[in-house]
């Protein structure tokens, strides 16, 4: 478990620096020997520029502005790659995607999702994941994935 002197939880708004985020993903891809194709990069740039969770079909619409022949499988293959390597997160409850605040490291994080403005904040606090893992282990359960999404109203919308 986390020691009592652990840092307080960090909250991150996504996409404060979309270009920096895309560059970090490009560096991480190169370091891991992954191929960040032009299309994957373009999908990543669209997610980063959105500034909030974005749905796959919204990404498809934006891609079609430059690629007339873009089809759903094209977007989903790019999203699958980005998800598999931890560069983006999928918000299951709203079926949308956001950039990962720490694309260089795989991690599970909870999200705070505003039901009014659709913003999503990544809560970077390892204690949450550790607590869930500890409880699962105590019950003899082997978790394969974690999804924790808390819905409510953000500070701006309250």
Q: Mean pLDDT across all residues, rounded?
A: 85
Number of continuous helical runs: 5
Strand order of the largest sheet: 1-5-4-6
Order of helices and strands: EHHHHEEEEHE
In short:
By secondary structure, the protein is α+β, with helices and mostly antiparallel strands.
Short key terms for the protein model shown above:
158 residues, alpha+beta, four-stranded mixed β-sheet, two-stranded antiparallel sheet, 5 helices, 6 strands, 16% strand, globular
Structural write-up:
- With 158 residues, this protein is an alpha+beta fold.
- The strands form two sheets. It has a four-stranded mixed beta sheet with strand order 1-5-4-6, with no helix packed on it.
- It is globular, with a radius of gyration of 17 Å.
Fold blueprint:
Layout: E1 10-13, H1 18-32, H2 38-50, H3 56-64, H4 72-84, E2 88-91, E3 96-99, E4 111-114, E5 120-124, H5 126-138, E6 149-152
Parallel strand pairs: 4-6
Antiparallel strand pairs: 1-5, 2-3, 4-5
Helix pairs in contact: 1-2, 2-4, 3-4
